[in-house]
Write a structure and sequence with these properties.
The complex is a heterodimer of chains A (160) and B (180). With 160 residues, chain A is α+β, with helices and mostly antiparallel strands. Helices cover 34% and strands 21% of the residues of chain A. In chain A, strands 3-4-2-5 form a four-stranded antiparallel beta sheet. In chain A, strand 3 and strand 4 (116-122) form a beta hairpin. Chain B is elongated, with a radius of gyration of 21 Å. Chain B has a four-stranded antiparallel beta sheet, covered by helices on one side. With 180 residues, chain B is of the alpha+beta class. Chain B has two domains: 9-64, Orthogonal Bundle (Arc Repressor Mutant, subunit A), CATH 1.10.10; 69-153, Alpha-Beta Plaits. Classes of the chains: A alpha+beta (160), B alpha+beta (180). Chains A and B meet through helix 2, helix 3, strand 1, strand 2 and helix 4 of A and helix 2, helix 3, strand 1, helix 4 and strand 3 of B.
Chain lengths: 160, 180
């Protein structure tokens, strides 16, 4: 996980059926005994082909996740977006230090003085402050904590 | 704190195990609920009822997939941040969220003096110039020329995975909601 580099992978080759699958499943899976058969029928595939393609998409890294989308806060967990101003010369060390924390779910380098942005997900709301303190200790840098105060709902769908 | 947990029945060991299993993803089998049921000692019907209940109370938003943008060549992932007067941030947030190009939109705290921006939205695209063109259109359409904003493209993704909120080896007690 720590050494994971997702910077510039070759874009996956998706055919029309893969795109139908991804676009359809971004809207969710029906809660029925044979959900894949139901979805396959909707998008003109067999159940076996849908499952085979999903497995391939998952294994090739196109899908980072196939399963429940949780409401972290409602699970009693903590979630926040945080940023660091990392000196260029120290970027590699700080990246390794930050990614070593299991609470770090996403970590992106971005174009700004605050150049490292990561999502923290913890089991309890108090866990956020603990994780931030630990990251500050490990990196020697102040963490800018920017938890969401209000979510404006979008239709979560990225057509591919 | 664990507000919504308190409106559900206390979670059984089997349910806790189901949630931990689900976090690793849904089994890609013709009867995924039955596969999960076998793994956590419940019946297929119990698993489905449990997932339905979690959806009803909002613990689970939906069953779906998350696309790893970079793997699809969606490399231009722009976080657009705005410094919006507090009295209009809610209204502008709703307007931005309604824009088709916007995939996420949140109000977050400013961190002065380093960070004056209080409204965050994401725009994804296959190319940087298209993302910027989409942003220009939004600024134009929503008449946001006077609102200071910055575009922070992602240069590199160092880590991308779903959150883990349940530890499989957790004792059940740790997740029991505390009395208010």
């Amino acid at each position: 996980m720590i050494a994971e580099r997702l910077s510039r992978p070759e874009p996956a080759a998706l055919d029309a059926a893969d795109r139908r699958i991804i676009n359809r499943l971004q809207d969710g899976l029906p809660l029925v005994e044979s959900p894949f058969a139901a979805v396959a029928a909707e998008i003109d595939l067999s159940e076996g082909e849908l499952l085979y393609r999903l497995e391939r998409l998952r294994d090739s890294g196109v899908l980072s996740r196939f399963g429940p989308m949780y409401h972290a806060e409602r699970l009693g967990g903590g979630l926040t977006l945080a940023a660091l101003e990392v000196p260029e010369t120290d970027f590699e060390r700080v990246t390794a230090a930050v990614n070593a924390f299991p609470e770090v779910a996403h970590n992106y380098r971005r174009e700004h003085r605050l150049n490292m942005w990561f999502v923290l997900a913890t089991e309890t709301p108090e866990g956020i402050a603990e994780a931030i303190a630990a990251i500050e200790a490990a990196t020697g840098l102040p963490v800018f904590n920017m938890p969401k105060q209000e979510e404006f709902h979008v239709r979560l769908h990225l057509p591919v | 704190m664990s507000r919504s947990l308190s409106i559900t029945a206390p979670e059984t060991q089997a349910e806790h195990r189901l949630r931990a299993l689900l976090e690793t993803g849904l089994p890609l089998t013709p009867r995924p609920w039955r596969t999960l049921a076998e793994q956590c000692g419940m019946s297929e019907g119990e698993v489905m009822a449990c997932v339905q209940r979690w959806q009803d109370v909002g613990l689970i938003k939906r069953m779906g997939l998350v696309v790893r943008h970079h793997a699809l060549g969606v490399c231009a992932n722009a976080m657009v941040v705005w410094n919006v007067p507090d009295d209009v941030v809610g209204e502008l947030g709703r307007r931005l969220a309604a824009e088709p190009a916007v995939t996420l939109c949140y109000r977050r705290p400013r961190r002065l003096p380093d960070w004056p921006y209080n409204l965050f939205c994401m725009i994804h695209g296959t190319r940087r110039d298209r993302v910027l063109a989409a942003l220009d259109e939004i600024v134009e359409r929503q008449a946001l020329q006077a609102i200071p904003h910055r575009v922070l493209f992602s240069l590199k993704a160092y880590k991308q995975r779903g959150g883990r909120y349940t530890r499989e080896d957790d004792s059940h007690d740790r997740r029991t909601p505390q009395p208010a």
